[in-house]
Amino acid sequence: MSELVTDENVALAKKILETHRLCDHCIGRMFGKAGHGYGNAERAGLLRDAAPPGSMPKAPIGECELCDGLLGEIDHFANLLVKKAEGYEYATFLVGSKIDESIVASENAIVSEFGLTEAEPVRMEVNREVGKRLFEITGKETDFDNADITFLLDTAYDEIKTDVRSLYIWGRYRKYVRDIPQTKWPCTVCRGRGCARCGNTGKLHPTSVEELLTAKAMDAACAQDESFHGAGREDIDALMLGNGRPCVMELKRPRIRTLDLAKLETGINEHAASRAGICGLRYSDKKEVVGIKDADYTKTYLARVVFSSPVNERKLNEALHALRARTIDQRTPSRVAHRRSDLVRRRTVLDIALLSLDGEKAEIEVTAESGTYIKELISGDGGRTQPSLSGLVGIGATVYELDVIAIND
Ligand SMILES: [Zn+2]
Ligand SMILES: [Zn+2]
Prior knowledge:
Order of helices and strands: HHHHEHHEEEEHEEHEHEHEEEHEHE
Shape: elongated
CATH superfamily of the largest domain: THUMP superfamily
Radius of gyration: 33 Å
Number of helices: 12
Structural class: alpha+beta
Low-confidence stretches: none
CATH architecture of the largest domain: 2-Layer Sandwich
Strand order of the largest sheet: 13-10-11-12-9-14
Number of domains: 3
Mean pLDDT: 95
CATH class of the largest domain: Alpha Beta
Number of strands: 14
Helix content: 25-40%
Bound molecules: zinc ion
Strand content: 25-35%
């Protein structure tokens, strides 16, 4: 950073003030990037001390032709922000501002008239000074990366918009019933507005894991809305058992950020009752949501299979043995071909074993790479998955129930 009090800067300051009436904040700000650790009004004082007495007249803030009194309103703005944030719990904040266009225009005019290279934009001074004042009033601190509340102050209209950071809570969920989707499923006819098809609910399914689990969390945080982020999802007719699936509940515009997570967990589980559950709640962040969405954990499934005729146990075990640690090619299954691009995916079956066999019905445990289509691994999907259990055994095989019993994260 360059030096503030130089002959050149003193001469420039004098020259500006010969033709412009500026308050000390504004003349100081014209040299705002020179010298370290000063406020802009302080900069003006230092330059004035070095100038011949009386050569740098000082306009009262209210008569400043540049800011038109704006920099005398720091207290007022800080108080507006405090009021705006009432009812929200926050430990950190960030102040941004939009300054009257006429002020920005006069500032730009002076900067270019005198070819100033170290001027600080008025917006920066307002942000910093209001932030400092807000800290003095509330004891809460500025955070440039991850503030609980971000204020956007429009100085022309005394208008303030707030962006309240979401509260993220991580957990592992289980799903105990076969007829609910993981997330809210808007009606495909009305897209959520409500119509005859969906009985005016706007939804295709009356509830979801998302709704069952987030309702109590929304209440606890007094949140306005929510999003549910799962590490993948199971089919709507599949149970999610075992150790549960990692997920993050995102609570939007929360008024309360400090929650009793143990109590919340109990409350959620009572509410979701026999349909879904969650455990291991802890605070999380946006970064973990990205990670959870990109995660490709192997999963272990319990597949209940029916063969087209009774199957020989030795032959079945040979087929399962042939699939173990085997790479398979899966062309996009016919059942999802309408929404996924048609291509061949190569996946690895890590383990597959027979748990029980009763005539034409078998229970089979499969551990496979993320993205493996288990139903098609069993059925062969008319030859689209190669090899398959059905193909190896030589008779038809269909999965009639498929549950996730472990996420191997
Ligand atoms: Zn001013
Ligand atoms: Zn509808």
